[in-house]
Design a protein that fits this description.
Length: about 550
């Protein structure tokens, strides 16, 4: 069957096949050839990359690059270059120990868990005057006794190594940081999450002592109040009744006292029974007055003793605003003549943390008008792990840091719960925190540190100076003659690590104050130590 192709007259360059004509195969072959070329290029590039990695690996014996390559002082094509230590053979202190003699080896110090212990043998320290500082041994004992510290392996050989630079310029090109071991404060203790709350005995929910209607309530949430300040006035009928009974009791006592005195001074014959009756009436009047006075006192209204000397005619006006401070009497008198007003006062200095009333609302002794808290001291509840709680004791200092704030509040442990919280499986520890400015708010969360070791003169180095190699902790100590000597050497020193801060690490044993250690960039020295160790192990394996 023949294939017909019809040319479009309006577009001469396009060939429009009819429905019965199949597609031309040439385009399909071009597409396949292009795809094969792309795959081939990709495979070629991959092979080139793999070959480059293999080439570099073979060139470096698949090992850690030497220090000389990192510093730019590559091994020259001469015979006096020490390939093992990356320095000229003539100045290699490892190959020629007499160039820089080591002190007599002191070996393992079982007391402090390090090699070449500078506390026991200060001559190994690299300071201008290698002598242990005052209290160095006691300081190390306190640090090691507080808690289990990571121990070094007594079979470790890293301390036998020294890292040497070819020149001062080679050392400076690596920009390795240096810092002396210095004395500074450090602390350790139990760290636990904590929550701030008000002291329950310093929180008062105040209300009236008699049922009535709130006549005045001028205080608002957040207002500070002093002890005795009036926070509300309640119009209570019982107050008027109690004041009336008090006035009646005073009048009755005064009257019966006068009758007894009159009877006693009468010139005529007086029967004994009349005198006894008068004395009994006076005693009864005394009791009634005492009960009336106690009734006012039960309602929070104390009657001054001077009130008994006030004339009866003036007593009602005097007692009308009993309990209301003189600073408020004028304002109250301008709005009401009621004798039923009962002041509700603050029981102590504090802050109003809630208000639940307003003028015109009913009030009764079971209700709460205001909640007042003394925020000068707050409680911190630290939820400690049961295994840590055994070390927490009464009176231990505590530092608390609120979430999101740098401020630190200090207090002391006031109580350790004898019971594990069944919900959190922690032991609550209560801490009393002074809060004179009221900055700590209830329901604040943060971190509490219960201080159990406070060392003011701990030996500290930057944390970047300490390296772990298997079961050994080491630092790189600069030789005491590094500046003046032609041999630029760092000594490998095993150390015991103590407490840690955000940037510094305590050296419990292994260093003396003043020794200079490598800090930032000291990973280069670690890499050289690792390379030398691997090289030594390979040589030992070859000999065997």
């Amino acid at each position: 069957m023949s294939t017909h192709v019809q040319r479009d007259r309006s577009q001469p360059s396009r060939m429009v096949p009819t429905a019965s004509a199949p597609a031309r195969p040439s385009n399909l072959w071009l597409h396949r050839i292009g795809r094969l070329l792309r795959i081939g290029v990709s495979l070629g590039l991959t092979a080139l990359c793999v070959g480059g990695v293999v080439f570099v690996g073979l060139a470096t014996d698949w090992g850690v690059p030497r220090l000389s390559k990192l510093t730019g002082d590559d091994e020259p094509a001469v015979k006096d270059w020490c390939a093992e230590h990356g320095v000229p053979e003539v100045s290699c202190v490892e190959c020629k120990p007499d160039l820089l003699p080591r002190p007599a080896p002191q070996g393992w110090c079982a007391a402090h868990g390090v090699f070449e212990c500078p506390i026991e043998h200060p001559e190994v320290a690299h300071t201008a005057t290698p002598t242990p500082s005052d209290g160095a041994r006691e300081r190390a004992e306190r640090a090691l006794a507080y808690a289990p510290r990571s121990e070094n392996n007594s079979a470790c050989k890293l301390h036998e190594r020294r890292i040497q630079f070819p020149s001062r310029e080679a050392f400076e090109r690596l920009t390795i940081g240096l810092a002396p071991a210095t004395l500074g404060p450090v602390s350790e203790g139990v760290v636990a999450p904590g929550e701030v709350s008000y002291d329950p005995v310093r929180v008062a929910r105040v209300g009236p002592r008699a049922a009535g209607v709130v006549w005045r309530a001028d205080r608002w949430t957040g207002d500070r109040v002093r002890r005795g300040d009036v926070v509300a006035l309640v119009d209570a009928a019982d107050i008027g009744h109690a004041k009336a009974e008090f006035i009646q009791a005073i009048v009755a006592e005064d009257l019966k006292t006068k009758m007894r005195d009159s009877l006693a001074s009468s010139p005529g014959t007086i029967l004994r029974k009349d005198v006894e009756a008068a004395e009994g009436a006076v005693a009864e009047a005394h009791v009634r007055l005492a009960l009336a006075e106690q009734g006012l006192l039960n309602l929070g209204l104390a009657v001054p003793p001077a009130y008994r000397a006030i004339p009866v005619g003036d007593l009602a006006a005097k007692i009308q605003y009993l309990g209301i401070p003189q600073s408020l009497v004028g304002d109250v008198a301008a709005h009401t003549r009621s004798s039923n007003l009962l002041p509700v006062t603050a029981p102590f200095d504090g802050v109003i943390i809630s208000r639940s009333t307003g003028p015109g609302e009913t009030a009764d002794p079971k209700g709460v008008l205001y909640t007042i808290a003394d925020t000068s001291t707050v409680w911190l509840t630290a939820n400690t792990r049961p295994e840590d709680a055994d070390r927490v004791k009464m009176g231990q200092p505590v530092r608390f840091r609120q979430q999101g704030r740098p401020d630190i509040w200090t207090g002391t442990v006031a109580w350790v719960s004898p019971v594990v919280d069944p919900a959190t499986r922690t032991v609550p520890v209560r801490v009393s925190l002074p809060n004179p400015d009221g900055q700590l708010k209830a329901k604040t969360y943060g971190t509490a540190e219960i201080i159990q070791r406070d060392e003011p003169h701990a030996l500290l180095v930057p944390s970047a100076a300490v390296h772990s190699e298997g079961d050994c902790r080491v630092v790189f100590v600069r030789d005491r003659n590094f500046e003046s000597s032609e041999y630029k050497v760092f000594h490998v020193r095993t150390v015991r690590v103590g407490a840690k801060t955000e940037t510094q690490t305590e050296i419990a044993a292994g260093l003396l104050p003043g020794e200079v250690v490598a800090t930032t960039g000291s990973g280069v020295l670690r890499a050289e130590l690792l390379r030398a160790t691997i090289h030594a192990d390979e040589e030992l394996t070859t000999k065997r």
